[in-house]
Specification:
Blueprint (H helix, E strand, L loop, with lengths): L5 H5 L3 H23 L7 H31 L1
Helix pairs in contact: 2-3
Amino acid sequence: MPLPKISEARNLSDEEIVAQITALKKQLFQLRLQKATRQLEKPHQFKHARHQLAQLLTVEHERKAAAQSQSGAKE
């Protein structure tokens, strides 16, 4: 399974980004729990989830910064 592209994250709406961030944080918690109880079968899922979470957080931050700079330019 290839790593997700950031262009896919940029095509999402703000609400979808927030929902996916929440879902990925829950998934990472479950993966850590599985690892601690030695039930984790696919350790590469950590890398994919962290990578996708970082992309979504980056896009969210970019949008907030752009909105803030536009509101600052209007004043």
